[in-house]
Design a protein that fits this description.
Largest sheet: 8 strands, mixed
Structural class: alpha+beta
Number of helices: 10
Helix content: 10-25%
Number of strands: 24
Strand content: 35-45%
Shape: globular
Distance between the termini: 63 Å
Radius of gyration: 24 Å
Oligomer: single chain
Length: about 475
């Protein structure tokens, strides 16, 4: 995207101007969105974003700036501005690039789409979204269906003053469906949104009619559901998006963004038992076509499969460059950012509880009264402590070991580090689900996941009595 000579000039001048380390991040990002509501197109947008961010380290002090003007003059002026922020006399040294010799690393195409986004036109996409709506119209109570497709094509270059030159191409597609069911008792919703690092084969992997039907079934289930009971009880948390609890209430506590500051309750706990022995927790940036996968992170480091917790013992944190400098822990290829306007921080990629060896049906045996949280919704988490409350999108009462009537309005309340200690059993049916995660470096695509898990007790907020 930029000439090697220009990149070398920018980084070399930053180093000669006094920076200990300099990094240039360049991206070209094309995004498309098509949204259909009740059979009518409501939105059809596309946009191209192009820019660069320059980050300079002075020990553990960091300065960052960005621009969407990638001319040589603009980039060199940006470099001089950052150097002057540190008050170095004379600004940028103009004597050249400082002898940089880049080690170029090109992507291996591990996540290359089978059907490129440009292979089909808008009509093809519209037809698939209408199929999703048709699949959702399974009962007269379904009053509204919204379906939309999101597509990304992102080309990234990361180069730094240590000679790293990493290029990556990231293509992502996501199909979302929202169904609203209504009768005399009121209205309820159902949603689903599969996404992967793929092209238009998303429609083959997740047939639109099936996606629509799943959303509608959830809405209809909630329409006939009774208010959830309240109290402390055993909870079986469903697979796939059920993993959002531990993503939010545990995963963020393992990022050096919080660990380095000592604000995480899991700081300085390496080698200690922090979860039940049946729990192994992994963050994997190499998952083929994973929604949060990439060949290189946004600091130009190859991504990896990082075992965070193994059989309950804390083995690693998620570490970016700054986090490594502050803590001494090795980088794990976890530096991520929303786009060039933000500096990277340590972030999750595809994070999940590894499969256990307990058949799903065995999890329910022996539960006299409890809750089956089949699908999770959104919630809130208190940073540092992992205290959380999450809504249950689809829930059922467990009575005498059997899944019984559906309930709605359930809220799970707890503390991530405590809840992970109370996992009694882990099933063998791992599934993952796409989502967007917000933190200091913006909103990024991440996968959450787990098999079904049995937690001995969680506080369930609902309707008392």
């Amino acid at each position: 995207m930029l000439a090697e000579s220009l990149v070398g000039d920018v980084l070399g001048r930053a180093r000669l101007g006094g920076a200990d380390f300099a990094e240039l991040y360049v991206e070209r990002w094309k995004r498309r969105s098509l949204r259909v509501l009740n059979g009518e197109v409501k939105e059809a947008t596309s946009g191209l974003e192009y820019g660069a961010g320059l980050r300079l380290f002075y020990g553990t002090e960091v300065v960052y700036a960005y621009t969407n003007d990638l001319t040589p003059q603009s980039l060199l002026e940006l470099t001089e501005t950052l150097v002057k922020l540190k008050g170095l006399a004379g600004g940028v040294d103009s004597s050249g690039r400082g002898g940089l010799d880049f080690r170029k690393e090109a992507p291996q195409g591990l996540h290359t789409p089978k059907i490129p986004l440009e292979a089909k036109d808008k009509r093809y996409r519209l037809e698939r979204l209408l199929e999703a709506e048709s699949g959702a119209r399974i009962a007269p109570q379904i009053k509204q269906v919204q379906s939309w497709l999101i597509e990304w094509e992102q080309d990234v270059l990361v180069a730094n003053s240590e000679g790293v030159w990493a290029e990556d191409r990231r293509v992502r597609s996501r199909l979302n469906v929202l169904a609203i069911a209504q009768d005399d008792s009121g209205a309820q919703t159902g949603t689903t949104g599969p996404g992967l690092s793929v092209g238009l084969e998303i429609f083959d992997l997740y047939p639109p009619a099936s996606v629509g039907r799943k959303a509608a079934q959830q809405a209809l289930t909630n329409l006939r559901a009774k208010p959830a009971p309240a109290g402390t009880m055993p909870v079986v948390v469903g697979n796939a998006f059920g993993g959002v609890i531990f993503h939010e209430a545990l995963g963020h506590l393992l990022e050096t963004t919080s660990v380095a500051k000592g604000t995480s309750v899991l700081s300085d706990k390496l080698g200690q038992q922090v979860a039940a022995s049946c729990v192994t927790y992994i963050d994997d940036g190499t998952t083929p076509h994973g929604w949060g996968s990439a060949e290189f992170d946004d600091e130009g480091m190859p991504t990896e499969r990082t075992v965070l917790i193994e059989n309950g013992v804390l083995k690693s944190y998620m570490v970016d460059r700054l986090g490594s400098l502050l803590t001494g822990y090795r980088p794990t290829g976890s530096g991520r950012r929303q786009d060039y306007t933000l500096a990277p921080t340590s972030r999750m990629r595809n994070t999940f509880i590894a499969p256990g060896d307990t058949p799903k049906e065995k999890l329910f045996e022996g539960i006299e009264f409890g809750l089956y949280a089949a699908d999770m919704g959104g919630g809130q988490v208190r940073p540092g402590s992992g205290e959380y409350n999450f809504g249950v999108k689809e829930g059922y009462i467990i009575r005498k070991g059997r899944i019984e009537e559906p309930v709605r309005g359930a809220m799970l309340v707890g503390k991530g580090p405590d809840t992970i200690q109370k996992v009694v059993a882990v099933s063998d049916d791992l599934e993952t689900s796409a989502g967007m995660c917000g933190s200091l470096s913006g909103s990024i695509p991440t996968e959450v996941g787990q098999p079904h898990v049995l937690v001995s007790e969680i506080v369930v907020g609902g309707q008392a009595g």
